[in-house]
Amino acid sequence: MAEDDTPIFINVDSESRPVISRTVSNSRAIPLQAKKNTILKSHGRPPWYSEDGLPICDAFVVGIAGGSASGKTHVARQIVQKLGSIPTIVILSQDSFYKRHTPEEVELAHANLVDFDHPDAIDMPLFAACLSDLKACRQTNIPIYSFAEHQRLDETKYLYGAAVIITEGILALHDPALRALYDLKIFVQCDSDLMLARRLRRDVKERGRTVDGVLDQYLRYVKPSYDNFVLPTARYADIIVPGSDNSVAIELIATHIRKKLKERATRFRPHMAQAGSRSPTPLSLPSTPRVSALSPPSTLRVNAMTDPYENLIVLPQTPQLKGIYTILRDKNTSREDFIFFTDRLATFLIEKALEHLPYRPRTVRTPVDVDYVGKELDVKYICGVSIIRSGGPLERGLQRVINDVLTGSLLIQSDAQTGEPLLLHLMLPVCIRERHRAKETWVFLLDAQIGTGAAAFMAMRILLDHGVREDHIIFVSFLVARNGGICVLRKAFPQVKIVCGAVDDGLRETWLEAIESGEGQIEAEARKVWVVEPGMGHIGDRYYL
Ligand SMILES: Nc1ncnc2c1ncn2[C@@H]1O[C@H](COP(=O)(O)OP(=O)(O)O)[C@@H](O)[C@H]1O
Ligand SMILES: O=c1ccn([C@@H]2O[C@H](COP(=O)(O)O)[C@@H](O)[C@H]2O)c(=O)[nH]1
Hints:
The chain has 2 domains: 8-263, Rossmann fold; 269-544, Rossmann fold, CATH 3.40.50.2020. Strands 12, 15, 16, 17, 18, 19, 20 and 21 form an 8-stranded mixed β-sheet that branches. A 7-stranded mixed β-sheet has the order 1-4-6-9-5-10-11, with helices on both faces. A two-stranded antiparallel ribbon has the order 2-3. Residues 1-34 and 286-308 have low confidence and may be disordered. It is α/β, with parallel strands linked by helices. The longest helix is centred in the middle third of the chain and has 20 residues, at 211-230. It is built from 17 helices and 25 strands. The protein is 31% helix and 26% strand. Strand 16 and strand 17 (421-427) form a beta hairpin. Bound molecules: adenosine-5'-diphosphate (ADP) and the ligand O=c1ccn([C@@H]2O[C@H](COP(=O)(O)O)[C@@H](O)[C@H]2O)c(=O)[nH]1. Adenosine-5'-diphosphate (ADP) is lined by residues 66, 68-74, 198, 202, 243-244, 246. It catalyses: cytidine + ATP = CMP + ADP + H(+); uridine + ATP = UMP + ADP + H(+).
């Protein structure tokens, strides 16, 4: 089986790529941590939270222990392959959590005089903390360990969004805190002579060792530790899997995981779509836009039109703004005009959103040598995250208004059959990927419209999972459907500000027909969608196609 390029995955990101290699003392280039810590994605991840915005289903965690070269990694990868089309899976290796070593320890390690098989060699608290974050659907940044250098590297690897986590390592079942996190515990049992033969071949080929060195280390540390610390943990396992000829056991494990994932499935989007009619406090904004005080939009000194949901901010409905919306709503508007007016509107909206950032006083000296007491932004990090593709025009607007702003994107699409939102891909800026920075980051979340709100909901949940503060999220959108998911959003995330230009009355469920290519091939399957009415049509398609 091809491991990383097996066709069931649409996207594979693995450290097994021959990306980094380092020259070691014996001057051979050794790839770092081959085939460890892999993220595999097939179809996207369905919602992992309920209507109140809180996560409801943890990731399913499998812990695989066993001797060195017993076949733990092999079992993990076989499970993934057998699972077939399932949401994102992370394979997390205990090897990443070897402690940082002093230069003296590294020298001893090269002479095979360090015991890497003792539980004390592993940073168990960090291992448990990272796993606990991932299980609870929070992001984590795990260390990267180089076997060639016997050292933890300075870089870390960002992981997020796994529905299934498979942890493997010789001592994966040793620590009680780790064991408490597993939903399924596996021990791979293998003959010692087979493990030694495999290890010898692997360590010489992949980890830059000599035959003598491997045997030395094996007799001094590996075998005694296996007998004292590794093998005894087999008693914690739910399943013992043989280290070879184990395809039947793997099939059974995959069936069990598939069943557990099915039990965790939710039906989210239909709830969101009907939320307006169910809500005890439907959105009281007038759908025929009110014209407020006529301040020129060029200065954007406008009064926010508010409703019981005070964090929904609608641009003042000036004749100028209505004129722009009339052009954008007109199905006969040319693409050129559509792009031009969408870009203009995006600038208005972003400027309005900027009013909601904190500012502090700043005094400057003017060219005529007089002090001027003004203001400057009082934020540590700002970034934009757009929902692909329709958030694109707003992202361009953000870039026009804030020079060099960091941006990221989320690909959230509907399942063709169920209409459920699926997280297919995310690329977030570093000020969100690292939790300590995320807490101090303000995020402009950008999408063309809020209909059912399912994509907006997922995007907000993702930011919160990363540690972004709810009141630091400003959602910017051209259009909001009054009776759609906005009602659920405002209940789940009351502190998120939503800046939009218009509120429309209707939200209708419909089917988009399949698109056939010239040769009778299906280019896009028929799919269920919800359209905002009167709306502006599919803003992303009209802008980009
Ligand atoms: N069931 C198996 N059948 C054949 N070879 C296997 C099997 N399991 C593991 N191996 C081989 O043994 C070696 C070590 O396996 P690996 O999964 O990396 O061990 P571990 O992760 O336990 O250290 C690899 O070369 C792998 O291809
Ligand atoms: O710097 C190091 C760290 C660890 N080891 C050995 O690795 C194995 C564990 O890896 P497996 O992939 O599970 O075999 C462990 O037995 C340590 O002895 C090392 O040699 N150098």
